[in-house]
Structures are given as structure tokens and as C-alpha cells.
Amino acid sequence: MNEHAKTVTARSGGRAARRAARAAPLADHLRPVRAGLQGGTYNPLTEPQMHRIHQAALDVLEQIGLADAPESGIRHLTGAGAILGDDRRIRFPRALVEDTLARANRQITLFGRDPAHDMELSGTRVHYGTAGAAVHMVDVAGRRYRECTVQDLHDAARICDVLDNIHFVQRPMVCRDIPDNREMDLNTIYACASGTTKHIGVSFTEPAFVDDGLKMLHLIAGGEDKWRERPFVSNSNCFVVPPMKFATEACIVMEKLIEGGMPILLLSAGQAGATAPAPIAGAIVQAVAECLAGLVYVNAVKPNHPAIFGTWPFVSDLRTGAMSGGSGEQALLTAGCAQMHRYYGIPGGAAAGIADAKLPDMQAGWEQAISNVMAGLSGLNMIYEAAGMHASLLGFCHESLILGDDLIGQALRCVRGIEVDEDSLSVETIRATCLGGPGHFLGSDQTLARMQTDYIYPTLADRTSPKEWDEKGKPDLIERATARKEQILGERARARFDPETDAAIRRAFRIHLPG
Amino acid sequence: MNEHAKTVTARSGGRAARRAARAAPLADHLRPVRAGLQGGTYNPLTEPQMHRIHQAALDVLEQIGLADAPESGIRHLTGAGAILGDDRRIRFPRALVEDTLARANRQITLFGRDPAHDMELSGTRVHYGTAGAAVHMVDVAGRRYRECTVQDLHDAARICDVLDNIHFVQRPMVCRDIPDNREMDLNTIYACASGTTKHIGVSFTEPAFVDDGLKMLHLIAGGEDKWRERPFVSNSNCFVVPPMKFATEACIVMEKLIEGGMPILLLSAGQAGATAPAPIAGAIVQAVAECLAGLVYVNAVKPNHPAIFGTWPFVSDLRTGAMSGGSGEQALLTAGCAQMHRYYGIPGGAAAGIADAKLPDMQAGWEQAISNVMAGLSGLNMIYEAAGMHASLLGFCHESLILGDDLIGQALRCVRGIEVDEDSLSVETIRATCLGGPGHFLGSDQTLARMQTDYIYPTLADRTSPKEWDEKGKPDLIERATARKEQILGERARARFDPETDAAIRRAFRIHLPG
Question: Which domains does chain A have, with CATH numbers?
């Protein structure tokens, strides 16, 4: 009676039938979770609150404006109607911002090299992926941090390529073994694109490297026209230095990339309490204001160019001023921003899934889960940094990335939500079960039909009983993730370039990865 | 430029001021999180969907009904207007259910022995606590499961007593070292109540043990009148055996406890795919139907008696039929139920925070976090099993309980949400910072004021940089939790009974814990 949680074991007949059912692969549209599921059931802000945030952002843009625009940016922005003040700050009349919002691209496709991985960003469609600029790799066996390399980056891309719940691969780390920044930028593209056919994100260091980067992308795509038709790389553009200053060089990078046909992630990464206001609402106001300025900028350079509204405010631990990406405050910031994207109807992205924990331990699990699930439920189109990120973005971990795929699978199941229709309400099933039926649902047709379409099963997370677990030798989660990593990296890379393309790239550029 | 996540280190002046500010204790109403924060920003069901679930539950009650009511229950229920069929099932006319909903107790106070821990259950006020009937303790150092004892239970209560974010202590485990069920029930009360002054939940095994239990509670309270004035123990009453059968003995326990003045948790613990329909909506329909039957029952015995609507549907891993409390489906079930509680305006509770993981590892972190944060955001009044639960409820872990307090702290921060007002919007702060100001927010008055009221700092979760972490000897999360456990248990128990009361209890009953 007080054992309310008894484990019900399946009758062998039902189990055999279920096992057979599970052996057959599911059609893609029947999979329990997939990229682009629609969120939006979680709304931390009310309509009037969103309106106040919008009005405050307009005030900030109109009255405070942004400093440090490059000369070319000043031309573009004042040409569109922005005002250059005596203090060299650019201020944005409300009407200019509202007009831009009305005309901006509201339905962006981020292409994969393989069209199966295309992402449609609109409404509350949710996608999870990596991102960041970690400088360390987490060595879980050695419990230590070391500098990350181009091989680590390539391996991360290869791992992502086979993980169902990682939908895109923005480069999560910088190649610390390539001291020359031009070579680093070019090898970053190569390491990512040769590792995965999913959409890729990079971040050019200097305007002077853009032409070479585009040249490499044309080679990979098989021509500039093919690249422009389906640009499979976007640029993470830190176009502002919060609070309210344009990042002069990054703006020039952005202008060149717009010209080159690359989608732009307008990334505003303030840190609440340090480079953004400490209150969550204020950090959102500033991020929104900065991204609105960026949106005006992009549309002034080229109307309708695809630009993702990248409000990425982070959180400070105010005791030390250090960043804390694993906090509840971070989850709220990201979800609040996602709601503002919906308020504007503009595709947006923000950061979630960051752990402050140094290792993939219990702390990492809860930190990554809270912000990832809230970001998904809030309907964030692009959830960046969703897996593998430790030490508040300073470290990346392959094992954690693999476990993150399981974590995000569960988050996606939550995003999918609860279907309510005649069959799922189950009145007839309950009737058939209780009135003259078997008194349980184990072997019912409904249960058999739903087990694959409604339930997601983890790959590495352990659901055995204590007894089974003991009999299996008490498998360690991290050791299993390491084994999976070695298995993936031991297989032939699926995304490699064909030999001619690879040779052409290697003739044109110094590629650090061995051929 | 591509280092968007630079750690901003505080200037020493600002840091010193912040440290000084943090030294002063905060008034309780200024604490960043507390019991009873209001959720409700997450709504997995639409209004029409909730209406359909309600109508389906009414259909189930009217057409299928419940079997196995005790004779006394048949008298109570038919007296209230329910119909006993030739098949001995009790069916509930729609009007009876609607009338009960209109008249039932909508504002329940669950008392603590210390009034500071009283919980007001109404609206979307959220409380987290323990619960369950684990049979194992998780020995983290030995990586093994062992049978749990009354000492383990008492220690869990003592640990909960000092954890800010554990608001109540329903007994999470059964005392496997007390073979006699009467002695077990009585020692469960003693072990919990002598360990904490927070509200306690127990679960009587047999009707024959209730009188002794109440007698002990009268002794603890200082008299029956004092007990009835502030009953600080509620009974977790598994009054149904899903699908749609009353648990005959448990119903008699319930009747006796209503008589004795004890609040009732009407607990329906079906398992989707096994003892409840596999679709999430169907499992909710059945749980709601069963709890509505329970609510009619309680109000037939004693109108307005405090009864918590305990829709606790669990999830099966349909590959094996075994329970999976750590799944995304579980989080959705619990959140959907929370919304139905709000639909009725009846205080409710459900299960969240369950890990399938055997140890407090990364899997445990994400499993506990996803359901706990979704339960809180959905405004669930009583979040049971929120901390310490492993192996799908079979194991309890003191270290995990302690870490769960940190996890729930972050979840509560998310429940609290985003305040939007003139000051938090921060337009003036941004202006002062950007126009002739320092260009950062580290030392601003607003940052100093908000750092304690708006931000919650974890107790054990590690936010150091990789360098600091290395210098500190790479502290292990679990080892730190064990150290904290030993510290708590090494201190004098705050909740112990006064010597006379203790002696009186020990004269009247065989108490297993040493005096």
C-alpha cells in the first residue's frame, strides 16, 4: 500500500511483441523528437512586460545610441536614417527601428551541406547545437584541462555529425595550436566542414581573412553560385562590445560577409552586472537594443539579408564578477530573450546548456538541463552552446557533448509537449482495460503503437534496476561516453570531402589536419 | 573579437564593497528564493485541452467508475450521490463531481512544528520536498546499494531540516530494519519528527496502526487539541490501485485519519503504459479521474477536509515495462497534472526530481533538473520526491539530497521569474554607465543592491575558473557533499523533542533510535 512506486514488469508476450516492433526503423516524421519542434509553452514575460522591454530598448537606442561604428557603418546607418551625434554615438529614431522590424527577414533557412540538415527558423521552431570559443579541452580521464587543438575541433564536428539531437555545429572552441589567426580561421572552416554535413557556424577574426574564407567555401560548395544558393556556414558576429559600443572591426567583417552571402548571427554578449545591467530585465533591454541596432545595420547594408537576432546576455556571479553560465538567472535571461524574438517575429538565438562545473558531474547535469529545457520550452529558434560546455565556456568536453545528446533528447521531448486528441485521451482504452479487460495496459494496441512514437529512449543514460546495474558491473556513465567517443572517431568520417575537392583546398591553403 | 565570453574580473574596489554587503544577513522577504514562490509561466496544455481532459475524466468516472471500495466507502459515496453498479463498481454522476469541486477546500495550510515552516497551498505557490518509499540507501563512496534503516531516515530528516530549499519532509524511504509494520509506522513518525520541524508526510500501512500514530502525535504536539489546531503531519494515501480500483485498506486508513484531523494526500500513482494509458494525455485523464473520485470520497466523509490532489502518474520505459522517473515524458506528465490542479483551483501535488541514475552523476543531474524546473514553472503546489531519489525511486542518497538543495535553489530562482519595473528595466543605469560613466556596471549602486536580492549563490556547486579549481586541488562534488553531510549530522539536532516529551514517547512505544 505504501509502495506506490512498484515496478511493473512486462509479461513476456507483450515484451516480445514490443521488441519486434522496436526493431523496425521509424519513418522520420514519426520519430519521437526531431529538429524544429515547436516550443512556446513557457512564457516568463507577459505581453505588457514585453511591450515595456521593447519601449525601453527604443529609448536606449534613441537617447543613448552606440559608439564606435566604423566609417562604413556610419555611412550605412546614417543613410538609413540613424543620427550621428557630436559625441560620435549613433542614435536610432524609433520609426527607423520599427520600419526595420517590419521589413527584416522573418523566415530564415540555415542550410546544411546535406539538405536533410536544413533548419527552418521561424515561429517557435527549436534547434539545439554547439557554439563558443573554449580555449581548453576537458580531459575527463586525467581530470585536467589542456589547450584545445584543431584535431579536437574536427573530432567535435565528427561527433556532432552522428548525434541526432545536435542540429548544428557552431565551432565550440578555438584552435590553440594554430598561432596565425588567418590560418586558424581557415582551418576552423576546414575542420568543421570536413567533420559534419550539418550547418556550421564560424567567427572570422579579421576582415582581411574573409576573402580567403569565402574562397574555401566556394571550393567546398563546388562554385560560388552553389555556395550562394545554399550557404551552409553562418558567421557568429560579435558586432557589439557591450554596453552600447559597436565592435569596429567585427562590423567590417559583417559587411564583407553580407556581401559574400553568408548569414549573420548578430551576437550581443553582455554580462549582467559587469557589461550589462544586473537586473535580468535590464540585461534583456540592453541585449535587445544592441541587436535591434545590428538588425538596422544589416538591413541598411542589404535589405532582407538573413540575420539571427542573437541576444546572448550572460550572468555574472556578483560575488566575484566571474561569469556563471550554469545559473538559474542565465536560464531566465535566455528564455526572456527568446520571448522577445517571438514578440518581434524575428528568428533568434541565445546561449543555454552551459555548465560552470569543470567536469561532467551532477552539477554539470543540472546546469545544462535547466537552461536547455527552458530555452526549448520558450521556443528559442537557435539554442547555442547547448552541449559540451564547461567552466562557464572556458572548456569543451567530448564526453559531455555525447551525454548532452541524451540530455537534449529529453529536453526535446518536453518541447514536443502533450498531444490531446480522441485517441490520446484514452477513454476507450481505459474502458476496455477496466471493464472485462486485463486490468493493465502493457499489451494493449495503443501501448504498442505509442512506444516508439511517443517515447524517447536514451542512448547512454542508465535505466537499469540496482540489481541489473550490479550484475552489469556498475557501468560508469563517463567511461561509457568515452567508449562511444572512441567508437565514433574510429569509424570512417561520413562528411569528408571528395578527394579532388580536398586536394584543391589543400593546394590553395595550408591545412593543418592530416590528409 | 571572437572571444565573446571573456571573463570580466571585478575591480578590487567594487569587490570589497560587494563582499562587505554580502556579510550582512538578508531579511527573509528579501531572500532571492523562498518557499511559496508563484509559478505558472509554463503551460503545456491550452484551455480547450484542459477542458477536454476534464470532460474525459468525467466520462471515465460516470461510465467506468471504480471497483473495490470498502463497505464504509460505499456507504459514504452512495450517500453523497454516487451509484453502486451490479458489477460493484462505483460510478460518479457529473453533477456530484462538479459539486464536490465547488465545495472542496481550496486553500490548505500544511503546518510545520515550527510555524516558520508553514506552507500555504493555493494558486501557483510552489514547495519542494522529499517523498517516496525507497528500500535502498545509495552508498556513494562504496558505489553500492544497501537496505535503508530508521537511522538513515532520521538522518535524512535532520539534513532536510537545515536545507533552505527543502520545504517539507515526506518520508523518502521505508525502515527496512524494522520488520514489524506497526513498529515501522510509529518509528517513521518518530524518526522524521525528531529530525525536523518542517511539515512531515508519512504513509500508514494498516488501519489498525492509526490510533497509535495519532497518540504519538498528540504526545509530540502537547495534547490532542494542539495537534488538531496545527496538524504537522499529512498522510500520503495511496487510495487507488490504478487503473480505477480503490485500495480497500488504504481507504479505511484514510477514513480514520480524516477523523483524526490529519490532512490527506490523495495519491494516484499509475504508470503510463502499465497501469495507466501510454499516451501522456490518457495517463493524466486517469490520474485526474481517480483523484476526483478521492476528492468526492474525502468530502463525503468530512466536507472541506484538507485533501491534496495527488495526481502522480509515472512513466514506463516501454522497452522493459520498468519505471523511468527521469524521463522527459515524466516531466510533462507532472507539469500537465499541475495545470489541471490550477484548472480546478484545488491544491495539488505530484512527483518530480526523480533520477533513474544509480549514482549522483551527470545523468542524475539532468534527470532531477528537467522535471523539477518544469514542475516549479508550472506552479505545482507540492513537488514531491524532489531531492535524493535514485534508481527510479528504489534508492535514496543523502549526498544527492544535499546537492539537490543547490539544484532546487536554481529551479526556485527560475520559478521566481523576471521582474519588470522602472528600476529593473535599467534605462537610467545604462545611460549613466554609457554617457560619461565608467562603461561597465561592476560598481554601480544597482549592481550592489541587486547582488543579494536577485541572485542565488549555490552552496556546493563549483563556479571557480579552471585555474582556481586546479589550485584548490580539483575538489570533487560528491566528496564535498559527503563532508557537508558529516558536518550536519555532527551538529546537535535542532528539532529534537524536549526530554520529558521524549521520555513519554519512549514509555508508550518501542522507539528504535537511541535516546
Answer: 47-100 (no CATH), 107-416 (3.20.20.480)
